[in-house]
């Protein structure tokens, strides 16, 4: 009698979970599974006049999804999902991102990209200074506290990897003992069709202290061997990959979600071949991977028959987190400076192209 009742409850529970995911997908479809946010970075002291310098971009005072800009003497506007002014706090930015982060606990795959030219604040937004951390640390803390709240009904394992992509190759295993071990993307032997990177170090986070330790370790490794960190970070993509595996202790139901946090290479290399100080190969690789990212996001909506995931290492590695009911968020970084105006227009145009995808044909 009891087992029959249990079986019945389990069936009902499974149906409920299924319905929940289905409704969620419909909601995501309605809202669009691609969101584009824009952060305007503050004017830096070293850029001249300091805080009094004139900013060429601003948020519309009535509508915080509109960015105004003066470009070649003309007033231009761009529409995003939300635009943050330079004085927005890391906390405010994170609030917009939070629902996507927690959806990974329910088994969704999510990608958050920071896009923009060098020095536009990508690393600030993703990693942030230790005293004022960005999305990476806040996301891990949030995931951890949510997961702890679900004990004892659910049992979760959170694993973290950090890796760089440089010149179309997976380069440094930032949590590994050997930074330079050769890494490749392989098809999983379990026939699931999933991709994985054999040998990439995965660190299991079991408490809050682990989070800070693992991020600190990865960030320190990122800066080692770089004679000039900003040059290095301008040329490589940095990925923080968080996987969350959950098991319901009474039903045995499993969920598997992934959160990919990506600090992209500086976009100023796009369309400027032979940029000073960078080799042609580097420039071409950055060019290619950023444009392929745009193409993939576009194709996911308009040409679902053929998605060019394989055209770059970045999209190939992330394909499971870009397709299907995955969710993507693009954080576009905009410089307020007159001297950067051409690059800023390029970044915002890229963002707008990506965003228009959500509206559908
Ligand atoms: N919102 C912000 N508030 C305060 N400082 C900021 C903000 N955004 C960026 N900065 C500062 O601007 C500088 C450049 O930012 P950051 O290094 O994040 O740029 P980046 O786009 O990651 O550049 P790169 O491509 O070279 O890595 C840093 O000193 C950073 O602290």
UniProtKB/TrEMBL annotation:
Which Pfam family would be a valid example here? Answer: Kinesin
Localization in the cell: Cell junction, Adherens junction; Cytoplasm, Cytoskeleton, Microtubule organizing center, Centrosome; Cytoplasmic vesicle membrane
Query: Where is ATP bound in this sequence?
Result: 116-123
Q: Which GO terms describe its biological process?
A: microtubule-based movement
User: What CDD domains does the record point to?
Assistant: KISc_C_terminal
PROSITE patterns for the chain? KINESIN_MOTOR_1 (PS00411), KINESIN_MOTOR_2 (PS50067)
One GO molecular function term of this record is:
ATP binding
Identify one Gene Ontology CC term for this UniProt entry: centrosome
Q: Which domain of life is it from?
A: Eukaryota
- Report membrane topology: Peripheral membrane protein
In what residue span(s) does the Kinesin motor domain sit?
A: 33-357
Q: SMART domains, per this entry?
A: KISc
Note whether Nucleotide-binding occurs among the keywords: yes
What exactly does this protein do?
Minus-end microtubule-dependent motor protein. Involved in apically targeted transport. Required for zonula adherens maintenance.
Q: Which family does it belong to?
A: Belongs to the TRAFAC class myosin-kinesin ATPase superfamily. Kinesin family.
Q: What is this protein called?
A: Kinesin-like protein
Source organism per UniProt: Latimeria chalumnae
At the highest ranks, the source species' classification is: Eukaryota, Metazoa, Chordata, Craniata, Vertebrata
């Amino acid at each position: 009698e009891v087992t029959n009742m249990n079986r019945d409850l389990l069936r009902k529970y499974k149906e409920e979970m299924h319905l929940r995911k289905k409704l969620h997908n419909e909601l995501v479809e309605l809202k669009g599974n691609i969101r584009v946010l824009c952060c305007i970075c503050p004017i830096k002291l070293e850029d001249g006049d300091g805080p009094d310098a004139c900013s060429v971009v601003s948020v519309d005072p009535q509508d915080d999804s509109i960015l105004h800009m003066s470009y070649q003497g003309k007033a231009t506007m761009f529409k995003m999902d939300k635009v943050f002014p330079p004085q927005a706090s890391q906390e405010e930015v994170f609030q917009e991102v939070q629902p996507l982060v927690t959806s990974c606990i329910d088994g969704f795959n999510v990608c958050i990209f920071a896009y923009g030219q060098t020095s536009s604040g990508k690393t600030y937004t993703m990693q942030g200074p230790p005293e004022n951390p960005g999305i990476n640390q806040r996301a891990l803390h949030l995931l951890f506290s949510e997961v702890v709240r679900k004990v004892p009904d659910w049992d979760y394992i959170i694993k973290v990897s950090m890796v760089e992509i440089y010149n179309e190759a997976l380069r440094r295993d930032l949590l590994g003992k050997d930074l330079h071990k050769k890494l490749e993307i392989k098809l999983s032997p379990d026939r699931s069709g999933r991709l994985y990177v054999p040998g990439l170090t995965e660190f299991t986070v079991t408490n809050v202290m682990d989070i800070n330790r693992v991020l600190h370790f990865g960030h320190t490794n990122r800066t080692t061997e770089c004679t000039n960190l900003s040059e290095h970070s301008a040329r490589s993509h940095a990925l923080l990959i968080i996987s969350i595996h959950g098991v319901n202790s009474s039903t045995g139901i499993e969920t598997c979600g992934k959160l990919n946090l990506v600090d992209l290479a500086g976009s100023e290399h796009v369309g400027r071949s032979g940029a000073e100080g960078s080799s042609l190969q580097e420039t071409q690789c950055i060019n290619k991977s950023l444009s392929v990212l745009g193409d993939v996001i576009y194709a996911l909506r308009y040409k679902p028959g053929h998605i060019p995931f394989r055209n770059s290492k970045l999209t190939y590695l992330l394909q499971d987190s870009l397709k299907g009911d995955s969710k993507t968020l693009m954080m576009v970084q905009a410089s307020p400076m007159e001297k950067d105006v051409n690059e800023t227009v390029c970044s915002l145009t890229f963002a707008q192209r990506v965003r228009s995808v959500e509206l559908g044909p």
